[in-house]
């Protein structure tokens, strides 16, 4: 079977989290680029990204699972009124500028 790239993760934690989610759903996922983390500073940053690859036949189901995960993880996010940065719902203070969250804004 041919493998196709599903997603480029922000970091190793996200990649492994999504790989576990897909595995739980019966989708075999392969992580590529994870071993390059030791070369930070030696290789260009764009080469150090961890990618999630799946079988081409499982791509539609994998995309659906990824979209559901992205929707669930973005619920409750808030935008800072001072610097306009997006912040996770669990943050009470903007990670970018330190402004205290005012959820009624």
UniProtKB/TrEMBL annotation:
Keywords: Metal-binding, Zinc, Zinc-finger. The lineage of its organism: Bacteria, Pseudomonadati, Pseudomonadota, Gammaproteobacteria, Alteromonadales. Residues 74-98 form the RanBP2-type domain. The keyword Zinc applies. This is Zinc-finger-like domain-containing protein. The keyword Acetylation does not apply. PROSITE patterns: ZF_RANBP2_1 (PS01358), ZF_RANBP2_2 (PS50199). SUPFAM superfamilies: Ran binding protein zinc finger-like (SSF90209). It comes from Neiella marina. GO terms for molecular function: zinc ion binding.
């Amino acid at each position: 079977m041919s493998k196709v790239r599903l997603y480029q993760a922000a970091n190793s934690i996200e990649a492994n989290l999504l790989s576990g989610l897909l595995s739980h759903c019966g989708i075999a996922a392969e992580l590529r680029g994870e071993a390059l983390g030791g070369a930070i500073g030696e290789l260009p940053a764009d080469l150090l990204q961890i990618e999630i690859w799946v079988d081409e036949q499982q791509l539609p189901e994998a995309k659906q699972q990824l979209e559901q995960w992205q929707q669930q993880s973005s619920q409750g996010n808030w935008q800072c009124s001072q610097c306009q940065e997006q912040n996770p719902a669990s943050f009470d203070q903007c990670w970018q500028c330190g402004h205290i969250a005012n959820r009624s804004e």
